[in-house]
Amino acid sequence: MTPATLIPIPYTWILSLSAVLFVIGTIGVLLRRNGIAIFLSLEIMLNSANLAFVAFALEFAARRGVAVALTGQLFVFFIIGIAAAEAAVGLALFIALHRLKETIDVDRFNILRW
Amino acid sequence: MWAEIIVTLIKLAVVIGVLFTTVPIMVWVERRGSALIQDRLGPNRVGPWGLLQPVVDAVKLLTKENLIPDGVNRFFYVLAPAIALVVALSTFIVIPFGSDPGLKLFGHAIDGFIVAPGLNLGILYIFAIASFGVYSIVLAGWSSDNKYALMGGIRSSAQMISYELAMTVAVVGVLMSTSSFRLDSIVLAQTGTWWGFLPRWNVFPQIIGAITFIVAVFAETNRLPFDLPEAEAELVAGYHTEYSSMKFASFFMSEYINMVTSSALIVILFFGGWTLPGVAAPSGWIGAILTVVVFSLKVAFFLWFFVWVRWTLPRFRFDQLMGLGWKVMVPLSVLNFVWVGAAMALRIL
Amino acid sequence: MVTYVFLVAALLAVVFSLVTIAHRSPVVNVLSLAIVFFALSAIYAMVGMDFLAAIQLIVYAGAVLVLFLFVIMLLNIRSVERLGSGRPLQAALGAAAAIAIGVAIILVIARQSPSFGSLLPDTGKGTAYSIGRALMTTHLFPFEFVSVLLLAALVGALVLARKEER
User: Fold this and answer.
1) C-alpha triplet B233, B239, B240: angle, nearest 5°
2) For residue A79, which phi and psi values (nearest 5 degrees)?
3) How far is CA C31 from CA A31, B138, C8, in A?
4) Which of B134, B105, B119, B341 is nearest to B254 (CA)?
5) Is the separation of the CB atoms in B176 and C136 below 8 Å?
6) How many helices (H) and strands (E) does chain B have?
7) What average pLDDT is seen over chain B?
8) Please, which residues 29-68 of chain A have a Cβ atom closer than 8 Å to chain C?
9) Sign of dihedral through CA atoms C133, C136, C139, C142?
10) For B60-89, what is the mean pLDDT?
11) pLDDT confidence of residue B221
12) DSSP state of B29
């Protein structure tokens, strides 16, 4: 019986990578004016959340001594699906907005301002 | 560990070598085959029966001036054919070319004629890598600074992502009946016969899925009748209008390698891979080589089928193409999926 | 060996996500995000979640980003500005706040002590089998709900992007 292979990556490394990516995504959302770029930074943030789930699933499985932690992976699966749906609707919104104002500079969408 | 690396490298080298020699053969088959179908002689001046024509073509493409037009976005212009070629070549590492005779080379078990035998994902890996192929087309069309190229690129990528869906659902039927993603398990599940004479190939119980998959694979590789993106009469040359010499050769090669991958997938998923009905594979190196020969003959038949269909059918218009993909192919493949599920529940399959 | 591959993948992810948020051309942003997704998919595969790695590539890198590319090309979206242009004070404050949050999170993480898990030998099925079973038995409701959600997104996107009838 072949012995199990060790995963030599501690979950804290994956979690730190997730934190770094989250910060980068947040800076992108806060600082950019191009609508598409804001959307892409949002996708980075969603992916950092996925990484966090994967890291915790890894640790959960390691503490229980099982090979795979299902709940974490299922969470990531659903997040990927929902992010795809959100991207579709968000891009459709951008198309509609572009048709209205010929620009996607989010600073120009200020019609609702008092 | 070194034995494993060397064995994998040998397998990789053999596969890539075979692929790069298949491309000139396919070029010759395409030109002579089209001539045969159109009742004319094909190339017959260079070598007997024009057999050296692909060599001459390759020399021409290599020595042509490597032109980069003025207004293109240089980075993406050069990146697009590179992506196309890398994606086309990367899909081959999970395709089983022959049986696993349990042989050893340099003390390491060869594990069958697959480059990556341990990959449990199998066909999902092929789908993941092939979904990157859309990028090469979109980037080629967009970076070319040419409205025909952009239209060709957008149309082609829209066509590819639409037919990817039908292709995937058609394959799910096969995956359900085999309960595995691995291509060698899918081949092994198709050994034997029903009632003594009908081979246990997946095409017979899942004929709708097979037809859907074959049509979808024609659309994925941008071959006629789905080649409006490269239509010579309508769009100059579609997304590779502005490409010449080696970059065009990369697109050309990647199209033929995609054809080989698609034929290999059709054979493995629906036509039994390297198995022959009623004949068990003999053991040892001879048996393994024989199974590779059987596989190659089946793939060669489907490559000829690709060429045959190209020069027989007229081209679809783009709206007809998209309507076919979404309104006919997807429902048909879902129907196949439901049929396979019902058959498995009733224990027919 | 796996550790080095992880470090390379992490480095790629960080560098190219910086390119994603900072570069002015939208197409370069999308393509660097594709590389980030590739690196993340590699990380998922390294910890034994192979099905997730494939799904990440097929759905995220292969479909969602192509959608982004289509929209950018069809609307002919040019770059609008550089990072944080026009409002330097707010930009600095926002970046500082984000970095402060990040540092706080990393400080908390650094206090944990990880236990090392292992991958059981290859059963020939991979994680797809377990995920599929779970989706059909214990997590059936979210699975069906996500399919309804995707249908709603499909219809919504069609309605929003449709040209208005005159």
Assistant:
1) 85
2) -65, -40
3) 20, 12, 18
4) B134
5) no
6) 12, 4
7) 85
8) 30-34, 36-37, 39-41, 43-44, 47, 50-51, 54, 57-59, 61-63, 67-68
9) positive
10) 86
11) 86
12) H
| Confidence band for B234, pLDDT divided at 50, 70 and 90 | low
CATH 1.20.120.1200 given to domain C1-80: yes
Reported pTM: 0.90
Amino acid at B122: G
Full DSSP string of B61-83: HHHS-----TTS-HHHHHHHHHH
| Pick from C34, C54, C69: CB nearest B128 | C54
Is C69 in contact with B154 (Cβ distance < 8 A)?
no
Q: How confident is the model at residue B333 (pLDDT cuts 50, 70, 90)?
A: very high
Tokens 């007229």: give the residue.
B314
Taking the Cβ of residue A73 and every Cβ of chain C, the question of whether any pair is shorter than 8 Å is answered with yes
3-state DSSP call for residue A113?
coil
- The interface predicted TM-score (ipTM) is 0.89
CA triple B271-B332-C54, angle to 5 deg: 70
* Burial zone of B96 (CB within 10 Å; 0-12 exposed, 13-18 middle, 19+ buried): buried
Q: Which DSSP state fits B243?
A: -
Return left, alpha or beta for B220; rule: phi > 0 is left, psi -120 to 50 is alpha, else beta: alpha
Q: Which fold has domain A11-104?
A: Helix Hairpins (1.10.287)
Q: Is B328 helix (H, G, I), strand (E, B) or coil?
A: helix
pLDDT reading at B228 higher than 70: no
H or E stretch at A5:
strand A5-6
List chain A domain ranges.
11-104
* B145 phi/psi in degrees, rounded to 5: 55, 40
- Region C64-90: mean pLDDT is 80
Closest in A1, A25, A91 to C68, CB measured: A91
pLDDT the model gives residue B241: 74
| Cα gap B328→B343, rounded to integer Å | 22
Angstrom distance (rounded) from CA A56 to CA B77? 42
Distance from C-alpha of B211 to C-alpha of B332, rounded to nearest angstrom: 9
B58 touches chain C (CB under 8 A): no
Give CA–CA dist C57/C33, Å, rounded.
Answer: 12
Q: Does B118 touch chain C (CB under 8 A)?
A: yes
pLDDT value for B155:
84
Q: Looking at the partner chain, which of C67, C110, C130 has a beta carbon nearest the beta carbon of A91?
A: C67
A45 to chain C: closest CA residue: C17
Instruction: Give the mean pLDDT of B20-33.
Output: 89
Range scoring the smallest mean pLDDT among A27-36, A79-88, B18-27, B43-52:
B43-52
- CA-nearest of B108, B7, B200, C43 to A10 is C43
Q: Which residue has the tokens 């080379």?
A: B105
pLDDT band at A1 (very low <50, low <70, confident <90, very high): very low
Q: Do chains B and A touch (3 or more CB pairs under 8 A)?
A: no
Dist. CA B312–CA B225, nearest whole Å: 9
Tokens coding C21? 């948020």
